[in-house]
Amino acid sequence: MFSIQSSMMIIFILLIMMITILNLTSKKTFYDKEKNSPFECGFDPKTHSRIPFSLHFFLIAIIFLIFDVEIALILPMVMNMSSSQMLIYTSNFFIIILISGLYHEWHQGALKWLK
User: 85 φ, ψ to 5°?
Assistant: First the structure.
C-alpha cells in the first residue's frame, strides 16, 4: 500500500515540476492573447454581439456560394459534352440561367465593392 502511495506522490511531484518548467520556458506572452482570440467577420466576439453587421459582406458570401456550386455542376457537363444532343441543350440552358443571374446581380448593385 505504501508503494502505491509513494509512486503516486512521485508522479504528482514530477507532473508539477514539468508544468512549471513548461510555463517558465514557453514563449507565450501576454501579448499573444490577441492573436489567439477568435476573429468573426470583422468584429470582436468578446464585445457587444449586436453591433451593426455589413449586409454587403453577407450578400457577397452568398453569391460566391451560389456561383461556386454552379461551377461544380458545370465541370462534369464539359466532360460529357459530346455524348448526347439533349445534354448540350440542357447545359446551354443552365449556362443561360447562370449568366442571367449574374446580369441581374450586377444591375441590382450586389457586385459593387465600394458603396
Answer: -70, -35
Interatomic CA distance for residues 29 and 75, integer angstroms = 49
Which amino acid appears at position 72 of this protein? Answer: A
Beta bridge pairs of residue 43: 40
Give residue 40's domain range: 2-108
Spatial distance between the Cα atoms of 101 and 69, rounded to a whole number of angstroms: 14
Residue-wise pLDDT for 37-71, tens only, equals: 666 555 555 666 566 666 777 777 888 887 788 77
Tell me if 115 is assigned to some domain. Answer: no
Nearest one of 65, 64, 28, 58 to 40, comparing CA atoms: 58
- CA 33 to chain centroid, in Å, comes to 21
- Contacts of residues 97-102 at CB distance under 8 Å and 24 or more positions apart, as own/partner, are 98/67, 98/70, 98/74, 101/66, 102/67
- Side-chain-side CA neighbours of residue 102 (13 Å): 12
